[in-house]
Amino acid sequence: MITGDILGERSRLSPDAVALIHAPTRQQFSYAELNQRALRCARVWTDLCSLLPGDRLCLLSENRVEYVDAFWAAAKSGVILVPLGTRSTAHELSQILADCGPRCLMYSARYDALAKELQQLVPFEYSVALDAEQTGPKVLSYAEGTARVRPDPLSTRIQPEDIFCMLYTSGTTGRPKGVMIPHRQIAWNAYNTVVSWQLRQSDRVQVYTPMYHAGGLTVFMTPLFAIGGSIVLHDGFDAAEILQALQDYECTILFGVPTIFKMLFDSPEFAALDLSHLRWCASGGAPLPLQLLGAYQERGLIFRQGYGLTEVGVNCFAMSDEDSRRKAGSVGRAMMFTEAKLVSPEGNQVATNDVGELCLRGPHVCRGYWNNPAATAQVIDSEGWFHTGDLARCDADGFFYIAGRSKDMIISGGVNIYPAEIEKELLEHPAIAEVSVIGTADEKWGEIPVAFVALKSHATTSDVELIEFLRPRISKIKLPRHVIFTSTLPRNAYGKVLKLELQEQLRNLKSGAASEREN
Predict the structure, then answer these.
(1) Top CATH class, 335-407
(2) For helices 183-197 and 6-13, what crossing angle results, to 10°?
(3) Which residues of the chain are modeled with pLDDT < 50?
(4) What integer pLDDT is reported at residue 136 of this predicted model?
(5) What is the pLDDT of residue 284?
(6) DSSP E strands: which ranges in 61-143?
(7) How far does the chain reach from its first CA to its final CA, in angstroms?
(8) DSSP secondary-structure letter at 416?
(9) C-alpha to C-alpha distance for 444 and 447, rounded to whole angstroms
(10) pTM value?
(11) What are the C-alpha distances in Å from 414 to residues 143, 387, 430, 477?
């Protein structure tokens, strides 16, 4: 029976192998040690917090060893882990908490203030503090709790369709949706990535992207644990630290989003690095600029591009080293046990090299959205195909190329931003009559949000005031970089905002500004 307790299985097979290296402290953990920690964490939940299989536990923390404990404790206990975005505001997170109904909150000292705001909004039955300096009458110390319990295996029998964790994505409506990720999905994504990407037991990969994101949790951590490799864990992104650790630990694969690869390449330390141990680089989260790809290839590095979604597993395509050169710009062929097709708006399969919506089917597809059968029905059809909303084409050799997005999503530094989230909050401002948010190209971040705003009659405000209005309501990365005031928004006969016209207006404004600078 396939379940998500990959750590437990690997610790049985390779107990003494190095599973995790914590970069800030340089502390190392074997598979056996990490498995014992996960069992103690699970026992804190079940024995001290009385959590049952199916109960939801929220985790608010930076990347750290205890985050890894909690992830694998979910695999063992049946408790559903709900990671919370540390860049989000209490206002944003309150919508997630209202939806998932958690019984417990685990949090670190770094986000103590935000945790206290959440505790005022939600009556958590239990709170678990990850750091010793956190105190409170209803707060359990994680260190003390793990010392009180024994790392005995749990008797809970996990089924493949049981929910392992829920990762929230806002979607185009602006309402957070909890992606139900079952144990079956975690396991298949891990095993399939090992086989299709040809990972090795000798591989060592850094994780520095946030672990509240599918990329931080499952791009390489779960596959590497499945094959018995090692993870180097960073608590966040620091280019100098990452490049130093890349060399010190002779990491064999480097993963990131295009923005990160650009920042690493521009770092003064990069040019002098010995990269002979690096097998290849993998980029995901957003289209990779060919100019950046060429810059890495000039250093003799192999660069593979990936594609995935939280809902269908973060690794859905694969390519060989040779393919990465001759099929530059492609995300590869569909992985083993992954079906992929491209369909027209009418639902018909498109011809070779024609663009259509990418649909995926396989054992790595999620169960849908928590408490939202309508949203689930919109993306998973009666035959089990997941409709991604992304546009792609497929060549005669079966290699897929992402052509764009049918949704209005903005990808900034690899982070998905949905205009509806920003629009919904801006419409709360008393001076605004209507608003539309679009993305525009940015050299550093890939894309940034821009807000077009029409004011109510006789109302006044400024771009600075609107940004300050938004600041406590949405995370920093979602803040519009520009606010453009207009008398009205262009709409079609059905009242839909014509965002292509807004893009044209924005191009004209940029062109005009450039002309003024030249003069």
Answers:
(1) mainly beta
(2) 50
(3) 172, 493-494
(4) 66
(5) 85
(6) 80-83, 104-107, 126-129, 139-141
(7) 70
(8) E
(9) 8
(10) 0.85
(11) 34, 21, 32, 11
